[in-house]
# Entry
Amino acid sequence: METKSLTESAFDYDVVVVGGGPAGCSAGVFTARYGLDTAVFDRGNSSLKRCAHLENYLGFPAGIDVETFYELMHDHAETAGCELVADHVESVDRTEADEGFVVAPQEGEPVTARRVIAATRYDGEYLRGLDTDAAMFETRDHDGEAQEHFDRTYAASDGTTPVDGLYVASPSEEADRQVIVAAGRGARVGLQVIEDGRRDWGYPEAVVDHYDWLRSDAELDGEWGDRDRWREWIDDQFPDDHDLDEERRTAIRERLIDRRFDTYLSTDEITRRREQGQKELLEHVDDDLIVAAAREIEAEQ
# Structure
């Protein structure tokens, strides 16, 4: 996991995610795993909880009950490094210096964040303070009455918005109808946050894309198993007119190489992670079902 930045942060968090449903948790998993200090504010009333049973999320052939799925999402976010905050966000505004954001919850103290990801399907009202161009909300007619709603086309497909540092995973017309689509949207936005952060820190454009992909260390051979070969390649990616001093450029290069080598796992580590993953799933299975399955296995043997 890469550390959050190459400089000390002036903010409480690198990323605040507003909403702990599928889109918000998915975004948080990516940003936190990458090393960004990430807080996910969740008041516990995600629209997902209105679903009686989740049937079309890939990987659960018989479907999965919403309570278990919600627990799995939050456990994943916490394991990745997110801080889950059980509070409702009332407003998001710019800091006095007009850099970053002040996130004001209903009960706790306000916190500051370098970037904010909105991930609440039904409610964007807390973003009103950022709508200086009156572009976030649109007026619709409901039974003869004009009502304002967050414009679900306000954000681009990657979640970026006209407000620097603000990303929207939800509300979004692209991702608000199915849980699996919402999770994918959140992941896309989380990756964009990482990519933008890398640009800010001075990473060359050729390597700002982040791919969270683990491989067997058996594939780490030949010239690309040599750190000096990576140094040569990365040095070639910096533009001739970059304005980084040698110390910072070297730090970026070595971080990139460290991260690359960390993505290769030994056979023992792959086995350990497989077993740990299955044990974690068991934590969310009813004990009586586990005992019954164990008895069936024992009887068959």
